[in-house]
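This is your field. Have a critical look at both lines of this record:
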Amino acid sequence: MHEIKTLSIDNVMVSAAEGTTVLDAAREHGIDIPTLCHLDGLEDVGACRLCLVEAEGQNKLLPACVTRVEEGMSVKTHSPRLLKYRRMILELLFSERNHVCSVCGADGHCELQTLARRAGMDHVRFDYLHPALTLDATHERFVLDHNRCILCTRCIRICDDVEGAHTLDTAGRACDTSLVTDMADTWSDARSCTSCGKCLLVCPTGALFEKGSLPSEHHGKEEYLKYIVNAQRKMPWKR
C-alpha cells in the first residue's frame, strides 16, 4: 500500500497517496490548475508549463503535472506571480504560430482559446512571428495544420502509448520545431499510421482534424480516450 502524504494546497489541507502528482492531488480536492499538455490517461511530460505552482522553500516554480506530493508541502496554485507567468506563456503560444481564432474551425471549442479567456488575455504584447507553415492534407482522411499546432505532444503520446504505432514525433529545435510523421514523410507516405484517428481526439486546438469536418466536431470526445485507456490497462480480453 502507498503511504498517505498530507500537504497544503492554497491553504487547504489535503491528503494523497505517495506518488500522486500535485496536479492530481489538487484536482481530487476541487482545486483547478490550468493545463494544455496534460490529459488523463497519457503520461505527463511537463511541456506547456501552464501548471507551474509555487512550493514553499523552493526558489523555482514546479510543474504540477510531474511533481510528486511530499509530506508537509505547502503549495500555491494561483498567486499573482503564477498568473503573470501563465498569461505570458499563453501570449507566447499565440505569437509563435498563426493562431487567428476568428477564422479557425476550432473557434469556441479550443482549449488554448478557453485558457486565454480565463486569463483575461485580450491582446498579445509580443510580436507575432508569422511563420510560413504548411498544411499536410495528403492523408486520405486527416489533415495536419502546422499553423495551429502548439507542440503539446498529446498526439505523439497517444500514438505511442495507446495505439502503439509511433507515427508522430517532433523534429527541429526552438521555433523551428514541428510535428512530423515517420521520418518526416508526408502523412500519406507514413506507413506506420493505422488511420485510427486517436490523435484527432486529443488535439487541444485546430491542428488535427478530419477532412469534411471541423475541428470543433471532435470536441467532447475525450471520454472515448478514457474508455480505450481503461480497457488497455485492465485488458479484460485476457481474463
In short: The longest helix spans residues 80-96. The domain at 86-238 is CATH 3.30.70.20 (Alpha-Beta Plaits).
